[in-house]
Amino acid sequence: MESGGKAPSGPPKDKEAKAKPAVVQQHPKLLMAARKGHWTPLNVLMGNSGAGATPPAVHAVPPGGLINIVIDDEQADVVDNSATTITLDVELNNVLHVVASSGDGDEFLESARGIYCTAKHLLDARNKKGDTPFHCAARAGMLKMVTHLICLAKAEGGDDRVKAALRKQNEQGETALHAALRLSDKETVRAMVHELWVADPELTRFPLASGTSPLYLAVSLGREDIAEGLHEQDPGLSYSGPNGQNVLHVAVLRSTRKRKLTNKERLALL
User: Fold this and answer.
1) I want to staple 55 with a disulfide (CB 3.0 to 4.6 A). Which of 49, 114, 177, 256 is the partner?
2) Which position has the higher pLDDT, 232 or 3?
3) Looking at the domain that runs over 202-270, which CATH code has it been given?
């Protein structure tokens, strides 16, 4: 430091003011309407003019913008406009997360389209666990809803928009494809995996660097037919697994377990 110079009084101040944290609002009435797929009350509760059952045809809220929610149509109690995220439960699910995981009948599909038209940025918004509505719909086995959400994304921005949405990973580094692979019904798994693959043929390559790949998960769950199908569809798919493992590790482990089980069964027959 030069002679006579003043020593700095402290760390330099940030040039830009820190952004205020989003205000989280929870609304039981909106949650109930979302779970039942009732578009008319959803439309009113989201502050759209009128209580008609026809979803709006325009994008009424800019990405990251506000959703003006009216809790009661008669009292017209309006939510604090400082809120930037409208959530419905402790998992920070937004209204589209809830609709996507609650059903895939016509009323739920209509509600999903209406919500999307009102606030397009909710289509692939993440909740507390990092899940998007695609994760939620896939995990719940809602095949029609997954297809519907894909169609909404494609209409908005083509294949690039679809891929951007489907490749989003949650806190576990998993995509909607991982959620689909964990479904118990084999036919639903096959149909869901096929739908996701058609939408994004390279979805099996994610996560890119490390973590549990869809192929690793399929093998670890004993879904050999699905694993073979994934490999046939994309020879460039990821082989990675957790903790530095790969598909070969889990394949050998499962094979060893099967041999031990077979030996025990043979001994029991002696």
Assistant:
1) 114
2) 232
3) 1.25.40
